[in-house]
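At this stage, I put together one protein's amino acid sequence and its backbone structure tokens, which the following lines show:
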Amino acid sequence: MKNTTLLAASLAVGATGAYAGGMDRSGQSISPLFEDGTYVELSFGSVSPDVSGAFNHPLAGELPSGDVTPSYTQLSGAYKRDLSDQLSMALIIDQPYGADIDYGADASYPIAGSNASVTTAAITALLRYKFNENFSVYGGVRNLSSEGEVYLNIPVPDSQGVTFPYAMETSTENDWGYLVGAAYEIPDIALRASLTFNSSIDIKFDAHEESAGLVNELNPTGTLDESMKVTMPKSVNFDFQTGIAADTLLMFSARWAEWTSTTITPVGYKAIVGDNLVDHDNDTISYSLGVGRRFNDKWSGSLSVGYEKSYLGSTDTAGNLSPRDGYKSITAGLKYNVTEQTAIAGGVSYVWVGDATTSIGGEFEDNTAVGFGLKLSHTF
């Protein structure tokens, strides 16, 4: 019972993760480490956001942005095995961070044609040591592969809609971090509480910039190549579950991430605009609360709600590459045990994306996202 409904509840995390603070997507779950015996899983998720806004021009009136968030997919996998009665290991592959924004080129919005993407993939290797059936500690290392690119039409101040282009792309880098944690369990009532610390990861990109704003006598091509440092945030995950009745499980999780430590500041962009390309005014905390239920030996299901508060004040603005602020979500999951060892699970999330005013004055309101996921698991 202790893992059946929890598995189903975690499937559609990609939809809520897409709108968690900063660039969080996977939530960096380590739940496969607590599976029994030798275990393997493969997951696929798809997220379809619908995020749009409008800019109120003093002469032209309301200028719509169109939908600025492309659909995307999430892939993950895990392998876990016991090395002894006390020691176990796990390998987890996920896509912990990401961003996609695309202001359509045919729109009348002031920065129409601008787009950006951040792509990451991580491999996490973990060891867990059980002191007894109640207490355990675990730790490991994480390798993060990351890259990004951006194309912007930057408005010229006081120019009545005139823009000039700016483009930047980075190298693909592989960098290392670590994680440590501890867990307390009471197997008879399916209780488990775990606390995990994920370290920050420092990345040193090679960045290539091109812009008319960089053209001068010393740089007639308007290009610039330089090193750019970016820190992905440290974070803390708390996960809790307990049986509350026969075949019924209560689940709660919280994640804090230090996004204020993450800035993206290309040298050329800073020289042109005088500001960071991406920064974050607040660290974030995301919550999830749910109930799981085993209906019979074949079927189990779950229902959960997620929440991240709005962090922007009445006079604060969101970045043009992240026109959102907090979220609320609901997720439903079902799991079917094909055999005693093999299971298929699926989940659907619906997300209400928090309203935001962007730095150029765009108003983004009443936006949503839908995500679904499938997971195949097998215990040997």
User: Anything to note?
Assistant: DSSP finds three helices and 22 strands in the chain. Residues 4-379 form a domain with the Porin fold (CATH 2.40.160.60).
